[in-house]
Amino acid sequence: MKYQAIAALVVSGALVTAGCTQNDPHQRTKTGAAIGAIAGAVLGHQLDDDAGRWVGAAVGALAGGAVGHYMDNQQRDFENSLREERDQHQLEIERLRDDTLKLTVDNEVSFDFDKAAIRYSFRRSLDKLAAVISKYDRTVVHIVGHTDAIGSREYNQQLSERRARSVEDYLVSRGVSPSRLQAWGRGEDEPRASNDTEAGRQLNRRVEIFVKPVIEGQEQRAYDRPSYY
């Protein structure tokens, strides 16, 4: 189906039902398609799961001039809600050149060594994260897992993917729409520091969360895989 037809169906459905339709997250993974609803407007998109690219249409995206203010407010709420984690150096928040917000989570506090299950002690932080993400629903959230270089490249890739999916599943359990979430694994391929020292390996074991605004006329960018390295 051409993307124009998809857009027409999304808009028509929103006007007729004044509701929303969401695919099951497992179905979304299989088909590469998801439709979500936001208050007062519908954000519709179709994803090519292999390429991670947006190929549909969006209604209710942020106008270009409103993006900065919207992301300013979201950044402030992240910083206020996660102040304790930032003070304890468990989490970093930074603003990227395209107004994307990047949150880097220390794996040492979020996962046990060589495990993909989220630590119980870190769930409270993810609860706060989910609340802010839900509040600012004109964004797409990319969760990217990273590992150090200990072990095989294949194993590290799989571990990074499992950890990213664990965070994704937890956010969904706290009410974040699965249509807004994308999980990626980068394995050992994008280190922050040398893997020759324990300090460097600790920096490399991390989860990064990219919160990207959906901008009118540039919707595809929100769904593209983040690459700021």
Provide a brief overview of the structure:
40% of the residues lie in helices and 21% in strands. It is of the alpha+beta class. It is globular.
Q: Could you give the topology of this structure?
A:
Layout: H1 3-17, H2 25-31, E1 33-38, E2 41-48, E3 53-54, H3 67-81, H4 83-87, E4 91-95, E5 101-106, H5 107-110, H6 123-135, E6 139-146, H7 153-173, E7 181-185, H8 198-204, E8 206-213, H9 219-223
Parallel strand pairs: 6-7
Antiparallel strand pairs: 1-2, 2-3, 4-5, 5-8, 6-8
Helix pairs in contact: 3-6, 6-7
Q: Number of helix segments?
A: 9
C-alpha Rg, in Å? 18 Å
**Quaternary state, please?**
single chain
Number of domains: 2
Please give a structural write-up.
With 229 residues, the chain is an alpha+beta fold. The chain has two domains: 1-60, no CATH class; 62-223, OmpA-like domain (60s Ribosomal Protein L30, Chain: A, 2-Layer Sandwich), CATH 3.30.1330.60. 40% of the residues lie in helices and 21% in strands. The strands form two sheets. It has a five-stranded mixed sheet with strand order 4-5-8-6-7. The chain has a three-stranded antiparallel sheet with strand order 1-2-3. Strand 4 and strand 5 form a beta hairpin. Helix 3 runs antiparallel to helix 6.
Notable characteristics:
60s Ribosomal Protein L30, Chain: A, disordered N terminus, 229 residues, 5-stranded mixed β-sheet
